[in-house]
Design a protein that fits this description.
It is a single chain. It is elongated, with a radius of gyration of 17 Å. Strands 1, 2, 3, 4, 5 and 6 form a six-stranded antiparallel beta sheet that branches. It has one domain: Roll (Thiol Ester Dehydrase, Chain A), CATH 3.10.129. By secondary structure, it is α+β, with helices and mostly antiparallel strands.
Length: 150
């Protein structure tokens, strides 16, 4: 299913994306290895057990990437020219192996492109919540999108 064009959005539009995703140990291990993130909180069960969390923490850059991945089918697949930036990324609660994450999106800003009349700039607020309804990640993603018929 393609994403929406710039002119099909309005500030305040909200989406709860499906499917949700349960984070596995393999997800965390492979992502950490691929990105050379050798933080023992992500990889060493004994080290993590001795931490204040008592268990392995999922790599927060994985949760960041998952939020984008879960959101794009409903937002920007086929309509995105470029992501222009990611801002105000916060992780108010940790993510643990076995947590099921759901992405929620709200359009918080939009404006016509001054230099590209067939495109527009949109700011999405993405939030990931776990199975307990706790926000584990929040961020703004700004994208340059095609207009319909352009």
């Amino acid at each position: 299913m393609p994403g929406r064009f710039f002119d099909e959005w309005q500030v305040g539009d909200r989406i709860t994306h499906q499917p949700s995703r349960t984070v596995t140990e393999t997800d965390n291990l492979m992502f950490s290895a691929m990105t050379h993130n050798m933080q023992p909180l992500h990889l060493d069960a004994e080290y993590a057990r001795a931490s204040e969390f008592g268990q392995i923490l999922v790599n927060s850059t994985f949760t960041f990437s998952l939020a984008v991945g879960l959101s794009i089918a409903d937002t920007t697949v086929g309509t995105l020219i470029a992501n222009l930036g990611f801002d105000k990324v916060v992780t108010p609660k940790p993510t643990f192996i076995g947590d099921t994450l759901t992405c929620h999106t709200e359009v918080v800003e939009m404006r016509e492109s001054k230099s590209r009349p067939n495109q527009g700039i949109l700011a999405f607020k993405h939030e990931l919540t776990n199975q307990r309804g706790e926000i584990v990640l929040s961020m703004l993603r700004t994208g340059l999108l095609k207009k319909k018929g352009a």
